[in-house]
Automatic annotation (TrEMBL):
EC number assigned by the record: 3.5.99.6
Enzyme class: hydrolase
Record keyword Hydrolase present: yes
Domain of life: Bacteria
Pathway: Amino-sugar metabolism; N-acetylneuraminate degradation; D-fructose 6-phosphate from N-acetylneuraminate: step 5/5
Catalytic residue list: 62 (proton acceptor), 128 (for ring-opening step), 130 (proton acceptor), 135 (for ring-opening step)
GO biological process, one term: carbohydrate metabolic process
Name recorded for this polypeptide: Glucosamine-6-phosphate deaminase
Statement: the UniProt record of this protein carries the keyword Zinc: no
Keyword entries, A-Z: Carbohydrate metabolism, Hydrolase
Job of this protein: Catalyzes the reversible isomerization-deamination of glucosamine 6-phosphate (GlcN6P) to form fructose 6-phosphate (Fru6P) and ammonium ion.
Length: 239
């Protein structure tokens, strides 16, 4: 893993955009994208740039079950608001939270990923070490699936809703196996609340109890963290 430590999330977003921009200019066509507060500074840089995205395909990590695409808390809505409305892509895929047959849809999404191998995959990390909604204990060999969200994740996401009762209790997400098939991975994390997860991901054992630890086995991972998120790391990573 390559670790880049920045002063703050503003610089972190700019550094992440540099990586995506360089990759796209070097021929990357399929991007795995993420939502939430962490990548917002990346998308802000993206929107301000002159990068043309009309030949690009995006595949998003996850979506809440039960939210329509026009729901302001859906990840469809997030992506339109923060990126796609300003930078149209050739094709965009986000899991269908309203799918009537979720297992069948998950197989379809696996096929989409197989047909469109991801050149660069963007990730965040949860305080419990989850990537996408792959919670601790999720098998490393799993593909796209429905996952019941843990209380920690529901509590962390409650800030986006009027109250915790409105937070969906499950989501459709890419599995760890899908993520590991990506050619390049960029993981972003900011703030001291992510510091322990970052340390366990990079320095701890590879274990399904820390889903992000599997990234140690990927050949091309760049981790972008601010100083707060890097504070628990060994000094050798902080240069």
């Amino acid at each position: 893993m390559k670790v880049i430590v920045t002063e703050n999330k503003i610089q972190g977003g700019a550094k992440a955009f540099e990586i995506f921009e360089k990759g796209i200019k070097n021929g990357a066509k399929v991007l795995g994208l993420a939502t939430g507060s962490t990548p917002e500074t990346l998308y802000q840089n993206w929107v301000k740039s002159d990068l043309n995205c009309e030949d690009l395909t995006s595949i998003n990590l996850d979506e809440y079950v039960g939210l329509t695409p026009d729901n302001p808390q859906s990840y469809h809505y997030f992506m339109q608001k923060h990126l796609f409305d300003k930078k149209p892509f050739k094709k965009t895929y986000v899991p269908d939270g309203m799918a009537k047959d979720i297992p069948a849809f998950c197989k379809e999404y696996d096929q989409i990923i197989k047909d469109n191998p991801i050149d660069i995959q963007l990730l965040g990390i949860g305080r419990n070490g989850h990537i996408a909604f792959n919670e601790p204990g999720t098998p490393f060999d799993i593909g796209t699936h429905e996952v019941k969200l843990t209380e920690n994740t529901i509590e962390a996401n409650a800030r986006f809703f009027d109250n915790e009762d409105e937070v969906p209790k499950s989501a459709i997400c890419m599995g760890t196996a899908n993520i590991m098939q990506s050619k390049k991975i960029v993981l972003m994390a900011f703030g001291e609340k992510k510091a322990q997860a970052i340390k366990e991901m990079i320095e701890g054992p590879v274990t399904e109890q820390v889903p992000a630890s599997i990234l140690q086995k990927h050949p091309d991972v760049t981790v972008i963290v601010d100083k707060a998120a890097a504070q628990e790391l060994d000094d050798k990573y902080k240069n």
